[in-house]
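Reminder: ligand-aware prediction takes two inputs, not one.
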Amino acid sequence: MASGEADINRCPPGGAAGIVRLAAISGREVQPLDPGRGSEGPRMLAVIDEAWCIGCTLCIKACPVDCIIGASKLMHTVVDAQCTGCELCVPACPVDCISLVPVTPGRSGWQAWSSEQADAAQQRYLARTLRLSRERRENDERLAAKAATKLSDLASHSRLTDPEVLAAKRAVIEAAMARARQKRTAD
Ligand code: SF4
Ligand code: SF4
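Here is what comes back for the chain with iron/sulfur cluster:
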């Protein structure tokens, strides 16, 4: 939308009220919701059927606001007050034990969702994005340190004397280190 590539009527969760808000901030015309993107309805809540949950943690990885609690091989559960009803956890579950239930009957769009709830969800999303980026960076740094150690081991290894083999291995490790450095800069 910001770059003008998408229209302002493609957000069923925001509904008609959301389109009016988007029209106000974008200066575009108010228009009906695009039916090809879904229909406006009550806000949903994800519910895990704990009897079937196998504790695979895939739903935790899929949830953009970090509102699913659980650990590997243990039952998982949704923190109701933090769930936005985005549905992203549903296809992630390999045993189909997540369902969505309406929690705001008769209310949809911005009538089913307060500004405080939206702000809290955005904060949770941003915190998650930062955490994932930090974890990726730390992992890249660990791998780069490992590669550097390997490179220095290689240089001093007495058994590997073939210069071509050494050069090939060094090139692979240096390329991995360069990729890690590039990722760190991009983050
Ligand atoms: S519906 Fe969305 S916000 Fe709710 S638990 Fe599933 S992924 Fe998280
Ligand atoms: S994806 Fe399904 S089975 Fe896996 S932890 Fe989540 S709810 Fe349980």
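The longest strand covers residues 44-48. The domain at 41-111 is CATH 3.30.70.20 (Alpha-Beta Plaits). We will return to this case in the review session.
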